[in-house]
């Protein structure tokens, strides 16, 4: 917020007091109206330039940090074709994050999370959560014979709950373990949206809901484990709430029914991520209301 005073007072002492209060400028009422407009316009333009310069510096710093909250590409994993699409809110890094952690040759851990909030504040906390999750996966792998999605979330929750700075930040997380040996996906969630499975055989979508609470709400967070069998051309779809909550020009949200309808009307051999992305973008005319992340 910039304060500009239009005033008839022209006393030096009063003007200095105003500047001490961090006002942007004084404009004396005796000035020509056109001159007033030009001065206000120039002040606004300079403020925009300062803001843009600050954002550019932040984005440059973010690009120089080796740890990304959204990888540029999904990794290759035998038996699965992993894809994701991400658009940050208003072009600035936000609170959505994705992580891929290879457990062994047959298992890959996939994490999709959403920190409540937008832009830089949420982006900053996303780094902490990725660090917690990576540590939890490693600890879980080393301490038990069978790593489960629910065990990973349980360990992350314990860490988050005991961190006073992080525990007050609301976070939803979907945790999947892809298994190419047993042809299944293991799923557990913390306050997240439902995940979907498209069946190539029936061309229908099944909905899977987790029972886990938001991370950090309770020390003894209970996270259930759901096993989903997958066959050739079946697809698992998960996304953050920006997808269903963004609206069209009439103010109607895209919503879960539109997601399911789009998936079920797409041919088995077509790229469902691309079709859903294009349908959603057309519906909203690319005016998104939050970070957008879609993973298949």
Q: Could you please describe the fold and organization of this structure?
A:
- The strands form three sheets. Strands 3-12-11-8-9 form a five-stranded antiparallel sheet. Strands 4-5-6-7-10 form a five-stranded antiparallel sheet, covered by helices on one side. A two-stranded parallel ribbon has the order 1-2.
- The radius of gyration is 24 Å and the shape is elongated.
- It has 296 residues and is an alpha+beta fold.
- The chain has helices at residues 12-20, 33-64, 119-143, 149-161, 242-245, 255-264, 272-284; strands spanning 4-7, 25-28, 84-87, 96-104, 107-115, 171-179, 184-190, 195-198, 205-208, 226-229, 235-239, 292-295.
Topology summary:
Layout (H helix, E strand, L loop, with lengths): L3 E4 L4 H9 L4 E4 L4 H32 L19 E4 L8 E9 L2 E9 L3 H25 L5 H13 L9 E9 L4 E7 L4 E4 L6 E4 L17 E4 L5 E5 L2 H4 L9 H10 L7 H13 L7 E4 L1
Concise structural overview:
By secondary structure, the protein is an alpha+beta fold. The protein has seven helices and twelve strands. 31% of the residues are buried.
